[in-house]
Design brief:
8-stranded mixed sheet; single chain; 13 helices
Length: 469
């Protein structure tokens, strides 16, 4: 992963930049991240301003404790959280979400999300598909990787897809390129020094076993100036002609395609600047920072209030030209002590979404940026003996905003226990199809080619949500 540093780097143009990137190896072995950049000259292009911010509520958010409260059910189902009215007549949400309630007319509340695979990662939220789909040819690609394939350009000064996920989504490699191959992997900065998310012991071993799978270096090595870099690129272009004949794995092809954009990203400093919150107006940073600390017994895998600033980071990346940003807020896997953990965690999400939506609106960006916040499944209607809620794939929830959608509405409903969808079920692929639509890609006609040469549609059972587009 990328590592944030503080020392300045003096480029040959005399501009001193503050870099956040770990020094990488730039030698005859090639650009260390060139296999992640797309440079197809015949790429189909959409609007240069449309973007997605995909917020994964890591662990599976309890639908009844966020946007689908059931105040009439017995306490062993509803717990002791109250509900509050919103700006949408008749819609109540959890008392823990007063800020979202105050701008509910700018959001869409999906109460009938179905089709969950019941796997603890974010792949379905990032692709719409189950992990096993097309596994024999590498699996389905995530939305951001498809965006890099279809909308990326060698002239871009920022990558199409930046993955900021932590916790389970990172460990399980949720933002994977599937059959598109290594050229379309996401950029994965290491934000662990900015936002701590403690991993469970088993996950630490899982992540370590992946090795270079989650390692990425984007910076110039110590002592390499832009001038020296250009000379090395010229040498690489000569050597690559021969090396492509030797390596048929796809890595050399990726290196050849993406050298141009790699150089642009490294030398512009635009991406590095976007990742540096020290360059943001302190008043904006404060706006994204909740003024509460959580309980003294904050669960060890749960993130604190500062996690709300991840959405500020996402906004800055979109402004820098990134088309898709994925991030996570943890930890909604509340098998025990659900109530207290929701009191610590839901206000962070509430604050973060309010800050992002109002910020984008004030900047005139909200119609171009689609926000979705959701998880891998819902939680059980009945509270268990440990005061927690367990996995419940039969129905879940999602919140959406922006993207020029018809907002200020509730889609779907559940029974009196928030256990089953009773009207207007919405599949994960329907949400993903809506995201593609908002980027200018028709999910029903657009295809990407798999490793066998067959065209694959962006979704197979989903379609853009008719109430929104």
């Amino acid at each position: 992963m990328l590592t944030f540093l503080s020392q300045p780097v003096r480029h040959c143009d005399g501009v001193s930049r503050r870099t956040f990137l770990k020094a990488g190896a730039f030698g005859l072995g090639g650009l260390t991240f060139a296999d992640l950049l797309r440079a197809e000259h015949a790429a189909r292009r959409g609007s240069s301003t449309k973007a997605i911010i995909n917020v994964h509520l890591d662990g599976g958010p309890p639908q009844m404790d966020l946007i689908d409260p059931k105040p009439e059910t017995p306490i062993e189902f509803r717990g002791n959280l109250d509900s509050i009215p919103t700006r949408i007549p008749g819609l109540h949400v959890s008392e823990l979400m007063p800020r979202v309630a105050s701008i509910a007319d700018k959001l869409v509340f999906i109460r009938s999300l179905v089709g969950a695979e019941e796997q603890h990662h974010a792949f379905q939220c990032l692709s719409g598909f189950e992990e096993k789909d097309l596994a024999n040819i590498g699996g389905r690609p995530s939305l951001g990787c498809v965006v890099a394939k279809l909308l990326g350009s060698p002239e871009d000064s920022a990558p199409s897809f930046v993955d900021l996920m932590q916790g389970r989504p990172l460990v399980r490699n949720s933002a994977r390129p599937g059959f598109l191959g290594p050229a379309y992997k996401p950029f994965r900065p290491d934000i662990s020094k900015l936002f701590h998310r403690e991993l469970e012991p088993g996950m630490k071993k899982e992540l370590a076993a992946r090795g270079s799978e989650h390692t990425l270096s984007l910076a110039l090595s110590e002592g390499i100036t832009v001038g020296r870099l250009e000379n090395r690129v010229e040498l690489l272009s000569n050597l690559d002609v021969l090396r492509r004949e030797i390596d048929r794995s796809g890595e050399m092809e990726a290196l050849d395609k993406f050298t141009q954009q790699a150089v642009g990203i490294l030398t512009s400093g635009k991406l590095a600047d976007a990742m540096d919150l020290g360059k943001e107006d302190p008043r904006l940073v404060e706006r994204y920072t909740p003024r509460f600390n959580g309980s003294d017994n904050l669960f060890y895998t749960s993130e604190g209030p500062k996690a709300a600033q991840k959405l500020l980071l996402a906004r800055r990346l979109v402004e820098a030209g990134v088309r898709c940003v994925s991030l996570s807020i943890s930890d909604f896997d509340t098998h025990s002590d659900n109530l207290q953990r929701m009191r610590d965690l839901v206000p962070v999400v509430d604050h973060a979404l309010h800050a992002l939506i109002t910020d984008l609106d004030e900047r005139g960006m909200l119609d171009d940026v689609t926000i979705v916040a959701w998880g891998e499944f819902g939680r059980t209607p009945r509270i268990n003996k440990d005061g927690g809620r367990d996995h419940w794939p039969r129905v879940g929830m999602a919140m959406m905003a922006g993207g020029g959608m018809r907002v200020g509405q509730v889609i779907g409903s559940t029974d009196r226990f928030a256990a089953e969808a009773t009207s207007r079920p919405v599949h994960y692929q329907d949400v993903v199809a809506t995201l593609y639509h908002n980027l200018g890609l028709d999910p029903r006609t657009t295809t990407v080619t798999d490793t066998s040469g067959r065209p694959q549609f962006l979704v197979t059972v989903g379609q853009p949500i008719r109430e929104l587009v």
